[in-house]
Fold this sequence. Notes:
The protein contains nine helices and twelve strands. By secondary structure, the chain is α/β, with parallel strands linked by helices. The mean pLDDT is 93. The structure holds iron/sulfur cluster.
Amino acid sequence: MSFIKVENLSAKYDTSKRSVHALDDVSFFLESGESVGIAGESACGKTTLGLSMIRMIPGGKIESGSILFEGKPILDLSESEFDKNYRWKKIAMIFQGAMNSLDPVFTIKDQFVEILKQHHYKGDFDKLILDAVASVSLDESVLKKYPHELSGGMKQRIVIAMALLLKPKFVIADEPTTALDVLVQAQIINLLKKLKKSGMSIMLISHDLAIISEIAEKIGIMYAGQLVEFGKSSDIFKNPKHPYTQGILESIPTLRENKKPKFIKGIPPNLAEPQSGCRFIERCPHAMEKCKKEPPKLKTDSGYVMCWLYE
Ligand code: SF4
């Protein structure tokens, strides 16, 4: 039994005029203690995938598919059952930009207490809060401070500690290092590595493959709402199969080789009007006639690739 198994997950956002299909038929799995990095361009569905895992898509909804968490189909649970037993207790999320939404008029401790009240926690508040703050290597003196008294790195650690408060087994981290300077980025990456060593599984959502390679054993590459390639990080970095994966790896500048980074021409398709066939067709250097048909999910050594080249 996999720790997490996502099968054929689709989600959309409805507006008064149209629906935006942000997630289409996404599948992947993780064994216990494994972490996954989800990479891709902006608006490719990475955040929607993370939000789907905690069943919290503001303005959107899951259309179909299943998520098995330790064998339990968590999409079939009632909202109250999921909230009581899973959200924040077993699955938590570090939201993108959350450090900027700490409430400026409350101390850090008050904000931890608020989370415990929201989740109807009945145990010793102080012990849990001190454990969470220690787990991100901060001194307990931060609890008396207000957000404006902390540096960006400290605020990000607080946001991570808030996600860890009820000791979840699986944490979704949405761009946890974006907008931080490189030194603070390194601190946060080291912190995530430490949490991973303690047995936690992480879904790291990032556009930065270098950061993903530091943390995750598995990678999912998203393009236009689809997970077009999934597998072991080592396989994908060594031998990327999907032309989009190849394109993003070739776009990373390197100091070692005298090679100019390439860029992928064109723009992603409009997800309000998803085309039939391969969604990468307009930008793909290998496009063929049969790519006008939806590509199959073809098995690779450690996962799958959605591309007719490997049929
Ligand atoms: Fe390119 Fe065709 Fe593969 Fe799509 S299915 S990525 S168009 S080769």
